[in-house]
Write a structure and sequence with these properties.
Cytochrome p450; alpha+beta; 404 residues; three-stranded antiparallel β-sheet; six-stranded mixed β-sheet; 17 helices; 10% strand
Amino acid sequence: MPLDFAGPRLPLYTAEYATDPHRTHREMLNRFGSLAPVELAPGIPATLVIGYHTALRILNDPDRFTSDPRTWERNIPAECPIRPMMEWYPNPLHSGGSDHARFRAATTAALGKVDLHRLHTTVEQLAAPLINTFCEDGRCDIVSQYALPVVFATLNAVLGCPADIGRRAATGMAAVFDTVDAADGNAMILSALEELTRIKRSEPGDDVTSRLVTHPARLTDEEMVCHLALLYAAGIEPPQNLIVNTLLLMLTDERFAGNVLDGSLSTRDALDEVLFENPPMANYCIRYPRQPILVDEVWLPAHQPVLISMAACNNDPAVRSGNVTDNRSHLAFGAGPHACPAQPMAMLIVQDAIDQLLDALPEMELAVPEEDLRWRPGPFHRSLVSLPVTFPASPPIQTLGLPR
């Protein structure tokens, strides 16, 4: 007999869930199987996919599961804190069919021309001055003093975005991800990116924004802003979280803490582990059934959100076994026609940022007990509030010229 989610739904927005989502996922799997009833915000129902094979089936079936939320959002209040993360925008993430093909073509072309060798140099040039701001102090917060600013500055360089415009976009994006003042944050993002679009239409350069502006898809101003907003959403929060979560693993897990610097295990090994265990976006890749559909003995209502839990699916006992070193079968970057097209660029930025920090401060240690660290509540990300570390005070490192 098909199952029906009639009881209370499990909230994904609480501090309790943020503290230990893996325990919640195990309990969900034991109780419900591959699909679990959840709330994304008070009164906002959704289904969380926690089975790996079920996730792949849904992600590779755009005919039955659309990425377009417009029918869903008709009944969602404007003040709903998660709406800015989920509502429709004319960009690849929220579209299907010919629109998706057009938008994705422009995005992949713009990203595909990023010179990864030059990007490596850019990260190095940006990381060194940041490290020098705290290396003599013997302590720092990795989140606010390193991971966020190095990712933010690198993304601005890739997009050709002036720092003040990028700062406004990043501030707005943080509010949207935290679902606190999300509407104001969204307005801040759109205003900043409208200004960036105007600048690049009048003076295009060798950067991703200019390549979007000049692409044969002929993106309108609205489409440009929404494409840039997507690049900021994907280009700041997830890489920042991946840097922080990977460094946390290196500092607390003996398999890595005792071996990363002596060559037994690499930064990439640690990244692979984190992409399985604590991916930077724990739950996302949102889909909407076009009509009621039976999946794994559960009736999914038409147009109600179905989220893929990358964190749960990656750890599904049906596919997870033992060591994941050098394993790329995780869903951290999605799958199917909407899989992230910036994966090589993102991995390079994250790995280079981590390596720069470890090379400069190899004796870094966690400054507080691991159990005292706090995870930011929210249904989508897997993100620490802060990651305080200590290390022997070190002299400033030599810096290269900053990228233009």
